[in-house]
Specification:
alpha/beta, five-stranded mixed beta sheet, single chain, 8 helices, 237 residues, Nucleotidyltransferase, domain 5, four-stranded mixed beta sheet, 2 domains
Amino acid sequence: MIQLALETTGTSGSLAVLDGKTQLWDCRFGLLRRTAADIACQLDASLRWCEDHGHTLRAISVAVGPGSFTGLRIAITTAKTLAYALGVPVIPVGSLAAIAAVNLLENGAANVLVGLNAYRRQVFAAEFSRDELCRDNLIHRCNDRAEVCSKQDWDQRVAEKRGRSDWVIAGDRSIVADQVAESLHHAEHCDAVGVGWVAAGLVAGSTSQPPACFADPFSLEARYLKLSAAEEKAASR
């Protein structure tokens, strides 16, 4: 299955074209100018590449959170619009599962602890095992795994896992001490390749037709997990 994977969970974004779990093309954008301004050009490049190489997109996978409030809206709106225009389904993928997949593929550890800065002394966190992420019949169990924990709780988790050969720690450098940051893997961002890899596993592991992970574009929603600062302020009035 040829799919276009998309994520803009942070200040930048990435795109990838995959055939199953095999990466065919990828790019990163939003590094020199705003993500919202750069995404259309990179989408055009990805679609032209598919056309030039005779690939027909069968699905679009997208990281739906947690992550930046603005970033998630950009990716999800783009995925909805493109999927509707092309008449293909969307596969929602958890941001932390995508980060975990990339890390476990490139590291020999059995488990990964993932954390993203949720700000206001909070962290989006989740733990994953290689077994569940690499087995298509189990990957659905962890696709939406993520929780909001306190920075104190996150620090305790990092301390417990740090230095253990069976664990990898992945996350924003802003939420770990300098000595831990040096050993972080793919610490700065989610990655579209990981999004596509998880999506391919969800499709392969589905026993229904069409696959249960296929979503109607207009049903797609972000997994924010917490209120924005403005929403919290309004709720406290």
